[in-house]
């Protein structure tokens, strides 16, 4: 049975499938997605699909429906059960088969979704398969109708211990000084993976916070990008005397770091630190950074003999560049970290191990260690909600124009990036998934950052009011 195009477009996004459970995503829809995905993968030679899911109440039944859609097309299913997204990527890479992860990441409990990948954790996005799946759903696909092949089988496999062992093989964690490590799982999947990864390291004392798996997120949203969701960890670090705090999002593929004072360490500083470690292992290698990361990142990479490569924001762009260039590492401002040795996929847990190794190999506290990688002040990502009738391009043009001759250069790789000279720059870009205009500002000092943010806000406020008055 065909589905309305508008309804399908609403849930099949640029990078994944995601929506409200019941009204937008249900078992019948994901069974059709499973069948369409299986047909696409079978045409490319796949014989099995690995499936994992997070702790949301809706995840087990949705993943089961997806599995039925897959086996009806003649492909086998390997279920790994509860998993983080990077654990699913590990399974896809180690088993050399396509994968599906049921999660809505940091979204509230009412949401769920599917992250799809090809064998070797290669991404499936709008231009690399999701568009074809979308079209099949709109045209109509019977998830129970096979294509002449015998029905596939379903088996279960526990890969958690293998996943932890593989991560340990990529980072030398022997001989570290004793570390007290506070981890806020946010009731998400880090409560499942952190004990396996950190608990077996003799020098680490794991201090757990909100490890109970609960897809209703009773303590705070599992979105550490919002500073409000770091408050509990910051207090926990200070109260417990931890050497470091780690916060993970709902599906535990992103990792945020807090130092021993309870102060956040920027993802750009983490990118610089991990890049330095990887370049020490492979001098001259390429390191990818998205255009929102601090300018300190490409500076540090070049100083250490590496080749910095700038990318658009988004995992599909970085993963494509990782594959095309053989880059050893990539980092984003949103705390996604990509590793060539992890099939080019992102793993917050692997990035965390690098930070722990760097901290434990020397005696300085984390605040002093990471100061080496923080050269500029930054605004963080500021979001402006766009109301109906407001043209984002008009706002951006007005903001850029307000800086006049002060703008040294303007480029449009992703949104618009304006260099104001003396180390000050800002980027504005529209969200791919929400009616938001995103602003990031960096400058040598906080006063210069505040001045740019204020000027941008004044322009947006004035023009938004004008738009509202005409609506």
Description:
With 471 residues, this protein is an alpha/beta fold. The protein has four domains: 5-158, Alpha-D-Glucose-1,6-Bisphosphate, subunit A, domain 3 (Alpha-D-Glucose-1,6-Bisphosphate, Chain A, domain 3, 3-Layer(aba) Sandwich); 162-261, Alpha-D-Glucose-1,6-Bisphosphate, Chain A, domain 3 (3-Layer(aba) Sandwich); 267-371, 3-Layer(aba) Sandwich (Alpha-D-Glucose-1,6-Bisphosphate, Chain A, domain 3), CATH 3.40.120.10; 377-470, TATA-Binding Protein (2-Layer Sandwich), CATH 3.30.310.50. It is built from 15 helices and 22 strands. It has helices spanning 5-11, 27-43, 59-71, 85-95, 126-139, 160-170, 190-198, 231-240, 267-281, 296-303, 315-325, 348-360, 366-371, 392-402, 446-470, and strands spanning 17-20, 48-53, 76-82, 99-102, 111-118, 122-123, 154-156, 179-184, 204-209, 244-248, 255-258, 264-265, 286-290, 307-311, 329-331, 337-339, 377-378, 382-385, 409-411, 416-421, 424-430, 436-443. Strands 1, 2, 3, 4, 5, 6 and 7 form a seven-stranded mixed beta sheet that branches. Strands 17, 18, 19, 20, 21 and 22 form a six-stranded antiparallel beta sheet that branches.
